[in-house]
Amino acid sequence: MLSYLNIEVGFSITPEDTLIIFDEIQNAPKAFESLKYFYEEAKEYHIITAGSLLGVALHEEISYPVGKVDLLNLYPLNFREYLNAMGERGLLEALNSKDYELMEVYSEKYLFHLKNYYYVGGMPEVVSTFAENKDYNEVRQIQKDILSQYKGDFGKHISSKDIPKVNMVWDSIPIQLAKENKKFFFGQIKKGARSAEFENAIQWLFDCGLIYKVNRVNEPKIPLAFYKELNVYKLFLIDVGLLSAMSELDAKSLLDGNRLFVEFKGALTEQYVLQQIQSDTEYTPYYFGTDKSTYEQDFLIQKGEDVVPIEVKAEGNVRSQSLKAFRDKFEPQMSIRVSAKGYINQGWMENIPLYAVCNL
User: Fold this and answer.
1) What is the pLDDT of residue 178?
2) According to a count of CB atoms within 10 Å of the terminal CB, is the N or C end of the chain lower?
3) CB neighbours (10 Å) of residue 29?
């Protein structure tokens, strides 16, 4: 293989000082399998591979080199990375330093960029194009192309009989998130649908990294993983910008906060918060609820030996009884509200600005 590569690149690949990058490796099963032998027989060569989970995780012809590679999951750009891409170094530094007093001075600027992020999202090509041209129509076209390409790729990796189910689950997620109760409800996919009929489709999308699954826990106790309900969950898309595109929200609706955005802002905000927790914190998110939903919390995280409830509010109107009811019943050491308001510490509860979810 090294001899072939030497000819392809036109120079000698030498140990220790040459970095070899195999891109789109899911399209070359033999290259993927070679990683095992590079590891065992030629450790002096440094190799990075990049590939879509859509192909790598599910490719029947690939023998996965277990224990021979270090894995790094890449997500769409989070909000901190988006600010960096927009050239907002000062806003980013204040965010990283947790200087809430300084952030409050520039809160309007943060919220302006946050609304743009709801529209643009974090797909690299989309962010790069927006940073260069600031063209909302161009952004939306690229997002539509990405969504179309995803659907085109579905057929490459699953049987034709399963494609309709995967498409139905995928298309239903914006509808599910628009509900006040965002628990995934199979009846929203089609009348009379049952979980057994669509579980494989959901698992397939999850394994590919195209959706997030947030399980409900029935007891807010440590460790949270012991109390999760496998068959009760909320589903989110990989990217808030793609959710905005699938929901056909236009830029004016988002930036001006007109009726269309107001009706869907809860879904976008919860999607955004989930995305930041997944990509920019160390925590695994769950949510808490009961059949009566009296104490339902948008997210729960495990912070050391504490269970921390997180309530998400899309705007500055933060009146809600559920977080206080949860606190009164379960007495957590810490409670978090994420909202458009600035940082507030009320003792029993901290309010973290939406743009500072990374500081959880």
Assistant:
1) 85
2) N
3) 16
